[in-house]
Amino acid sequence: MLFDTPPGTSDEHLSVVQLLRDSGITGAVILTTPQEVALQDVRKEIDFCRKARVPIMGLVENMSGFVCPGCRHESAIFPPTTGGAQALCDELDIPLLGRIPLDPLIGRACDFGESFAESSPTSPAA
Fold first, then answer.
1. How far apart are CA 125 and CA 103, in angstroms?
2. Closest Cα to residue 116, out of 84, 124, 63?
3. Sign of the dihedral defined by the CA atoms of residues 50, 54, 56, 62, in that order
4. Higher-confidence residue: 5 or 46?
5. DSSP string, 19-56
6. Which of 25, 27, 82, 84 could bridge to 20 as Cys pair (CB 3.0-4.6 Å)?
7. pLDDT, mean of residues 90-96
């Protein structure tokens, strides 16, 4: 089950953890982007999970780059000025599960009801 919550550790987070604790929560996968402002929010979320005894399965860096629709080259549009997700994972001993770049073909696949991984298997985002 996936929960997309606002940044921080508000009542929504507490309510979700309490609800899932009774259902047997197995852990959290936390998403971030490379910018420091996002990483600051994620640090708070990691702290919250640790205090609430929610196992952290790992971290995923979304928007880690941009895949050019013409040449398919990937470039950093949000440069990780402080090391991005990798540095945060190293610092806090959390597995980095992967990086997902922006690829305009994802939107196209969604528009046509196609599996992106099947329609663009060579994309860095697949």
1. 7
2. 124
3. negative
4. 46
5. HHHHHT---EEEEE-SSHHHHHHHHHHHHHHHHTT--E
6. 25
7. 96
